[in-house]
Amino acid sequence: GNSVTQMEGPVTLSEEAFLTINCTYTATGYPSLFWYVQYPGEGLQLLLKATKADDKGSNKGFEATYRKETTSFHLEKGSVQVSDSAVYFCALSDPLTGTYKYIFGTGTRLKVLA
Amino acid sequence: EPEVTQTPSHQVTQMGQEVILRCVPISNHLYFYWYRQILGQKVEFLVSFYNNEISEKSEIFDDQFSVERPDGSNFTLKIRSTKLEDSAMYFCASSALSTTSNEKLFFGSGTQLSVL
């Protein structure tokens, strides 16, 4: 079945450090891929998405490239800030199994220290 | 940006009791969903709802669960007789369309349900 695997947290970084959060997926079709972020006390917010191979999603300095050959969608940011501290979720939506039944990873908590 | 609102933020109940989790989706959205996340595990799809009926449900969504849109604004999840393993964060979500796989879901901030 479809699944998403993302790296275990928590990830603790100093401000201005480079961030990578790994995400790999298994899907039967050609899924769309998403990164959602949850700031403390808030809901899940869409951070970025990519809908086909080699697409790069980007937002707020974060980037992720849809790599079909490695079935990956790693999240990166060149210089993190304290305000980036949150839980990050990788997710996929597979059109073969349902357009709204998103499959999520377990989430990776990021803590950025000043 | 418009928001999905969930109440309460935290609900504590005794095993065997009924609970109702409430959600107010974004006003012009047509599709509604419940997801849940047991501590340390993945966010899991429970159910989707469109046109006043369930569109799809997961294996988790057994006869103890039900959803309802009692009026034009609320969307509720009822657990008839709670079990310890129902303890989780429950997220409500809504979307305007469901015709493409890249449709954006808007999530609420969640209700943390603790069953004692």
Structure explained in plain terms:
- The complex is a heterodimer of chains A (114) and B (116).
- Chain A is mainly β and 114 residues long.
- Helices cover 0% and strands 49% of the residues of chain A.
- Chain A has no helices and 12 strands.
- In chain A, β7 and β8 form a beta hairpin.
- The radius of gyration of chain A is 14 Å and the shape is globular.
- The relative contact order of chain A is 0.34.
- The radius of gyration of chain B is 13 Å and the shape is globular.
- In chain B, the strands form 2 sheets. In chain B, strands 2, 4, 5, 6, 9, 10 and 11 form a 7-stranded mixed beta sheet that branches. Chain B has a 4-stranded antiparallel beta sheet with strand order 1-3-8-7, with no helix packed on it.
- Chain B has strands at 5-7, 10-13, 19-24, 31-37, 43-50, 53-57, 65-68, 75-79, 88-95, 106-107, 111-115.
- Chain B is built from no helices and 11 strands.
- The mean pLDDT of chain B is 90.
- Chain B starts with a strand and ends with a strand.
- Classes of the chains: A mainly beta (114), B mainly beta (116).
- At the A-B interface, β6, β10 and β11 of A face β4, β5, β9 and β10 of B.
